Amino acid sequence: MAITSVYLWCYGIKEPFLRNYDTLQYQTKLLPARQKTIKAMQSEQYNTNSKKVIFFLFALLFTAGLSVNAQNIRVAAAANLQPVMEVLQKNFKQKTGISIDAVIGSSGKLVAQISNGAPFDVFLSADMSFPETLFKNGFAKEKPVVYVSGSLIICSTQNIGFENWERLLLSARVKKIAVANPAIAPYGKAAEQSLQDKGILDDAKPKIVYGESISQVNTYITTGVADVGFTTQSLVKELGNKTTLYYKVIDPKTYEPIQQGIVILKHGADNPSADKFYRYILSPAAKSIFKAYGYRVQ
Amino acid sequence: MDLSPIWLTLKLAGITTLLLLLIGLPFAWWLSRGRSFIKLIIEAIITMPLVLPPSVLGFYLLLAFSPQHGLGKWLHDTFDVQLVFSFPGLILASVIYSMPFMVGPVKSALQQIPASFAEASYTLGKTEWQTFRYVLLPNIKPSLLTATVLTFAHTLGEFGVVLMIGGNIPGVTRVASIAVYDLVEKMDYASANNYSLILFSITFILVMTVFIFNKYQAKGPLA
């Protein structure tokens, strides 16, 4: 915005789209011959003005590409991080002054976008295999490292008692079970593993509805359109004071550990801000935030 | 290749089109006769899905169908139906979403028929229904075909609403457009291409049909 006003000031553009009422009134009292000259003058002024406007727009377009603050970085973050991301962004900005544009989506979707040249600097995944794939295919600077381990919960807006959740899911009390798409969302994969482990996956299948990411599963849970859903503990923390949620942490032995990996991507390889953010995520400051949101940290 | 998403899409489009013929024709007829403030408002509401983002419609349907309060709760408690994540729910959404494609062309065609046609029919002792059936409808055949085909084609292309309230359930709400989205996210471009080609061909044939039929009317495919 500041840039825009500077431009306007530099080119001395008068508002070309407003009629100049003074001249108009003045005109009506003049002879036809004089009127012509004034008209000509007006249109000339309009012309130079519109030329200036066009030039200004071009200049703006041209610099729009460049004026992205070189400091800022774009972070692709797995959907389970949505609740914690805002806190991390604020904290990081306080420490370094660097702003983060976060793009939230399922890990698989983000990997597809990055593989197709999406300009992200850092990728925070919900597992290790997606960022490893990126590294193998030459989209990441180095091998991924684990920044947190996530825990899977079963969650509902109704107090239906999760003591024996596997029996509950098969009862008539539960009509819809929200699970994130297992192919692209690691938490969805973990949920299916857990159902498989309890031996109820096939029986529960007809009740399962798939969210395209944990975010959509959270929507289904909080709006109550699904009776229960498998999600991440950070959701409960985020909504702690807004919505009452009933949940139970799923026994970690029933699914493969959710090790979440971080990589700096090729696009951010030469960006010192990306490196700063990478080190911040692995720092004690970020770790204590993650911990508060129910993640396990080393 | 699993053809169920394609069948599901065709089933959804077919049922939606049939329902809209039943609902939309009387609506268009009623709207075409005279103007009043109420009609104006109703017409505006019917036309809105043309410009309303599907996500907005999907969001409100999600709230309306939630079994925890209001309409959704009543449906859930009295009839034990849940419209979210179900095929009937998709049909309801599609009917709302494709309504303007049925009502718009039919209404404007009915308005273009000279009033003397219907009046002549009335003087000959025909009822309103007979007049509608034997005088008005035959006169708007091209527009009726256009409306029907466009409604069908538009429902084939439905995506945003289904993404919001469908839940991507194979064989229930996983229509072809959602299947394509899903496969692209998984980076399975070959399968995505299979579905896309089928949809592309069907849509092309449909639009061409309208075009060819309307050729004699000296109109473009959308008029």
From TrEMBL, chain B:
What's the protein here called?
A: Molybdenum transport system permease
The UniProt transmembrane annotation reads 6-28, 40-63, 83-103, 195-213
Q: What does this protein do?
A: Part of the binding-protein-dependent transport system for molybdenum; probably responsible for the translocation of the substrate across the membrane.
* Residues covered by the ABC transmembrane type-1 domain: 6-210
PANTHER family to which the protein is assigned, alphabetical: MOLYBDENUM TRANSPORT SYSTEM PERMEASE, MOLYBDENUM TRANSPORT SYSTEM PERMEASE PROTEIN MODB
Matching Pfam families = BPD_transp_1 (PF00528)
Q: Which family does it belong to?
A: Belongs to the binding-protein-dependent transport system permease family. CysTW subfamily.
The record ties this protein, via InterPro entries, to: MetI-like, MetI-like_sf, ModB_ABC
Keyword field: Cell membrane, Membrane, Molybdenum, Transmembrane, Transmembrane helix, Transport
Domain of life of the organism encoding this protein: Bacteria
Primary residence: membrane
